[in-house]
Amino acid sequence: MVVFNGKLYSDQEFFIGVGNTALSFGHSVLEEIRIESGAVLFWEPHYLKIMASMRMLRIHIPMSFTPDFLEEIMKDALSKTTHLKNNAIAVFQAYPSEDNIAQTDYHISFRPLENLHLGQVSDTPFEIGLYKDFYIAHSLLSTLPTNYKLVERLAGVFSDENDFQSCFLLNEKKEVIGTHLGPLFVVSNGQIQTSPIDGGTQNSVFRKEILSLLSKDSEQEISEGVISPFSLQKADALFIFNPSKGFISVSKYRKKVYEQQEFVQAIALKFQHSIQLKTAN
User: Fold this and answer.
1) Where are the alpha helices (DSSP H) in 58-176?
2) Which residue in 72, 187, 228, 279 is a FRET match for 21, CA 20 to 30 A apart?
3) For 180-206, how does the pLDDT look when each residue is reduced to its tens digit (9 = 90+)?
4) C-beta atoms surrounding 126 within 10 Å
5) Which alpha helices (DSSP H) does the chain contain, by range?
6) Whose CA is closest to 244, among 62, 110, 78?
7) pTM for the full model?
8) Do the Cβ atoms of 170 and 135 come closer than 8 Å?
9) Same domain flag for 134 and 272
10) Residues 146 and 274 grouped into a single domain
11) What pLDDT is attached to residue 56?
């Protein structure tokens, strides 16, 4: 099922016109939201991020866009998408109307979760490569949740062509800013490091929540700093977070083999526990 401007359509009925501003110009906010057992995870920070991004991208915010309205319409649509059993990634997208840029259209679609339990980390080998054909711009726009994902998509194609499970992304300074699946965390010498937002890293809600958890609960020192491609082979462990797949423990990059999956598993369990405490309240 797809929600378009508050109305529910089947996947077969829903149609985006050729003049759609998101399709034609990439002018939209696109936020991926994880829903488990009908509960929208971290809805308040997701909502605030959507509103702030719409303002920065000069997309009119309708009066109806209240937190309660958007949350309820997501839950209602998902409950009617019975095959997903109230577990899904909700993809919220808002964009200027093709008929009047002072008005806003939006739609919400759903796709299945690839990992139903955030506390579980797959032990399937996960090899990662380095994508360097094109770079992510070192700018504020790169940090916003938009539908412009060309470099990420190309990195995904490159991964498939070379039998990798993902690829590191670089900005124009050739600094590692994450992966095509989500933010990267580097574990080395008792420290967990991730790339800074001002380098072009996607400023995702889950990234913020993981950093918040680690800063409170981890025995490791947490930092945001420039990550060089050369430092990755010296790391003790690498892990990625994807809203659908959850925590991903990287097992190999070039000749380096990482063997600290238990460490990543422990972080995943702590994160799942913190979510359970929040949803219980």
Assistant:
1) 67-79, 140-143, 150-161
2) 72
3) 999 999 999 889 999 999 999 999 999
4) 22
5) 21-25, 43-56, 67-79, 140-143, 150-161, 205-217, 261-280
6) 110
7) 0.93
8) yes
9) yes
10) yes
11) 96
